[in-house]
Amino acid sequence: MSTQAYDVVVIGSGPGGEGAAMQAAKLGKSVAAIEDRDEIGGSCTHRGTIPSKALRYAIFQATNLLNTRLLDSDALDAALSFPSLRRSARSVIDKQVDMRQSFYDRNRVPVFRGRARLAGPGMVEVVDELGGRRLLQAGAIVIATGSRPYRPDGINFGHTRIHDSDTILDLPDTPRSISIFGAGVIGCEYASMFRNLGVKVNLVHPREQLLEFLDDEIIDALSYHLRERGVVIRHRESCERVEPRDDGVILHLVSGKQIKTDILLWAAGRTGNTEDLGLDTVGIEPNSRGQLEVDEHFRTTAERIYAVGDVIGWPSLASAAYVQGRYAAHHLINGSCDRALITDIPTGIYTSPEISSLGKTERELTEQGVPYEVGQCSFKSLARAQITGQTVGMLKLLFHRESLQILGIHCFGASASEIIHIGQAIMSQPGESNSLNYFVNSTFNYPTMAEAYRVAALNGLNRLF
What are the tens digits of pLDDT across the range 134-157? Predict the structure, then answer.
């Protein structure tokens, strides 16, 4: 078996792998990537971020046409069938694959197709679908194998009425009702999408609140609007068993409740893709969810082996994975990297309406004893929101009472994931440049959603005097 040598070998071509491979190539190193799919892009492109967000936008367009009476209900039924909606997402996936493949081609990074397995320190074996084997010698290795939905024992995921976030995209038709177990980011996003399709939704959650890492006011707003749309939210519930039937599926809860719907979406956690990776050959032990432990520089316990993206767990964001990959590549080559690259990464949650946040929450600032104040802008007071009819939502700025430094930004409403970046740019500035005064003294185009920053900043200053 022939051996090929590279400075860096990256396992996985999702956002984390791409970030690592491109950064290492830009720094002049020889790089090889390994991907077990027929096409590059990882779960993000093929089963996660891209198809689900394309699906969400297709639903938004169709329902918007109905609401504006540009599409009658019969035409809507045809347009909102799952196969029709997925076809619109397919073209986006194809464009993403072509674009990302061009990155590897331009940077002369070969992509080896097949399953990767560590074969001892500095060695990676690639086994293709026909059983062919290739051995790569690596000066350093970046593991970016991603994750998959967690499937607990005792639930028959082979049944046509039981799904996870991978298989839900392949529904042959639109169900009349759905139970979603798990109200994390994925569960809440799909609850919004299915409800916008007119599907009856039960959102079942073991915890006290939805998305507990968010600011409490944003959590309350999301819960209110989901319920207002007709989503039934059940907190503090645990699953006892799942009973699939020919005419539906029954979710049996420990509390004694039984919820019968057309289909079940299990959205309770994810598992790192680390099985059969040969981690034992280099002394790496994944945790119970298949995730890898890393230090602050994304180094595993094995020398010259890094791990980035969903395979290391939180925050499990495509955007975070990409910058983690870049950071890891820079660090393994130069021995250091600017920490600013991986700090203050915004959270984007594509519910309806969207949510995006950055920095501290009120809960965290209160626990830390930081003297802060709040500036708010309700979208319903903005001319742009009134013009577009998207008046649901708010922008919330948390800032230090004395220095006026921006400590946290929380946005709920249309285009929240875009609006957040204006505040991010200011929040990342050093010293006095990070100040509420920037928003007070800047002129924003009118009418725009960005104007919310000026309104929120003035609202916050008024609370100080």
Answer: 999 999 999 999 999 999 999 999
Residue 12 pLDDT more than 60?
A: yes
Taking alpha carbons only, the member of 337, 409, 326, 426 closest to residue 374 is 409
Cis peptide before 149 (omega within 30 of 0): no
pLDDT of residue 87: 75
Task: Specify the residue for token string 């699939």.
Answer: 244
AA identity, residue 11: I
Q: Which CATH superfamily is domain 353-462 in?
A: FAD/NAD-linked reductase, C-terminal dimerisation domain (3.30.390.30)
HEC-encoded secondary structure of 214-240: CCHHHHHHHHHHHHHHCCEEECCCCEE
Are the CB atoms for 190 and 168 separated by under 8 Å?
A: yes
Domain 162-268 has CATH 3.30.365.10: no
Two tokens, residue 301: 């316990």
pLDDT tens per residue across span 44-82: 888 888 888 888 888 887 777 666 655 555 555 555 677
Q: Enumerate the β-bridge partners of residue 252.
A: 241, 258
Please give the residue that has the higher pLDDT: either 89 or 356: 356
**Hey, CA dihedral for 225, 229, 234, 238, is it positive or negative?**
negative
Which amino acid appears at position 314 of this protein? W
CB 370 within 8 A of CB 407: yes
Q: Tell me, yes or no, if the two domains 162-268 and 353-462 fold the same way.
A: no
Predicted TM-score of the model (pTM):
0.93
**Distance between start and end Cα atoms, the chain:** 76
Q: Judge whether residue 431 has pLDDT over 90.
A: no
Among the four given CATH numbers 3.50.50.60, 3.40.710.10, 3.40.50.1100, 3.30.200.20, the one describing domain 3-148+271-342: 3.50.50.60
Rg of the chain taking only CA atoms, in angstroms: 24
Which amino acid appears at position 273 of this protein? N
- Give the tens place of pLDDT for each residue, 115-139: 999 999 999 999 988 788 999 999 9
Structural domain boundaries in the chain:
3-148+271-342, 162-268, 353-462
